[in-house]
Structure formats: structure tokens, C-alpha cells
Amino acid sequence: MLTFALTVVRHGETQYNRDKLLQGQGIDTPLSETGHKQAAAAGRYLKDLHFTNVFVSNLQRAVQTAEIILGNNLHSSATEMILDPFLRERGFGVAEGRPKEHLKNMANAAGQACRDYTPPGGETLEQVKTRFKKFLKSLYQCMLEEHGSSDQCSASSSGPSEPEQPVIAGLASDGVHNVHVHALIVSHGAFIRVSVRHLVEDLQCCLPAGLKMNQVFSPCPNTGISRFIITLRREESARIQCIFINRKDHLDDVKNSD
Prior knowledge:
By secondary structure, the chain is an alpha/beta fold. Helices cover 36% and strands 17% of the residues. Strands 3-2-4-1-5-6 form a six-stranded mixed β-sheet. A hairpin with a 2-residue loop joins strand 5 and strand 6. Helix 5 crosses helix 7. The termini are far apart.
């Protein structure tokens, strides 16, 4: 049995974010000045955590965010950063580079909700979920190869005790005090939203008491942070527990400075 933490961070703000323009995969923009500040704030917030593995979308806004986070970290600056195309933002086809309002108008014209609408040339939500499922499979294999073995998982699958409920104190270290393997993921807003929905609805992820579903599925802010604890019993069998979703405490100082 292998237990590891998974901390998921959305990239910092870009000028396209600020101007409410869709980026998707075809618009590969750098962080804005505010985005750099947000990423640095996230890095300072997470500075005392040790990330054993780092997986990042290969779009530059995510890469820059991850570099800044690791540059502020006291224990993980030398951790190898794996760039993974599976973690890219949802593709929005012909809507990329256009105002988000344009996508809403296209969806309305098609008689669909904006979240469910796929513009011509774009990815469906199901295709994004399939990408995330492929990433999860490769993640599990990687974590087992580096930090455990499938034999250990099989031996423990006959009835492992349920892990203790973590104490949530509003700290960056919530949920990871006794977890020695910790992966960091830096990705994108729409991709993270689809991923969280898959973890909760399809994989029966345990949620913190009192967390409302509209909070669970709310849009992730730039450098919003979510955390999960994953216990692998076999290569494709996992118990997933959510510690927090879309935390943004670290952004208070950034807002005040803008």
C-alpha cells in the first residue's frame, strides 16, 4: 500500500486572463506581472513542503508558475519537473483568443449551457476527462515505481485499515504531516475543474465535512490550491480523500498590492 499527497495548483494570471480572453491550448502566453506575484505568493505559502515529484502542463504559463513555486521552496528546488501534455488546458477550438462572452453566445445559439458546449475544433468535456484518466494512470505507475511496489500494494489489499481523519487547521501543511511522498501538479482552470468532478463523481473521493458541492465544482482562481491524499492498494485501485479545494489564502497580499 502506498499513500501520497497530491497538491494541485492552477497557473498564475496572464494578460489573457485579465482581459477575459480564452487561451486553451493554441494561445501560449506568459504570466502577467500579477501572475508572477501570485506564483511567488503560492511558492511562499508552500515553501516548507517537500515535493518528491512535480508534474506540469507544458504550456508556458504553467511552466513559469511551477518554476516560481519551486524557486521559493526550501526543500524541492532540485526536484525534477516533468512536463506532461496530458495536463494541458482544455482545447477551445475556434473560440481561442476570443472573449469568453463570445463562447457564451455560441453556446446560447446552440441551445446549450456554456460549460457543456464544445466550439468547433475544441475538446469535449469527455475528451478532457479521458486525458485526466490517462494522466492518473501514468501518475499511479510512476509513484509506485519510485516510492513503492505493486507487490506491497497487493499484500496490503486484504484489508488495510482506513487512515485517520486529518486535522484541518487552515495551514499549508494540512493533511501531509505524516505523508512522506508528495506530488505537485501545476495545470489549468478548465482542466482542473473537469479533473475534480471526475475524482468526486466517478472515483467517490471523500470530501471534507461541511464542504458544499457548489464550492467543490466552483472555478479555480489563478494559483488556487487543492489537495488530495491518495492511497493505492493496487495499481488501478485507489482511495482518494480531499483535504481542501481552491484555497486562495496566499493571494490576500497580492490583492492588496494591486
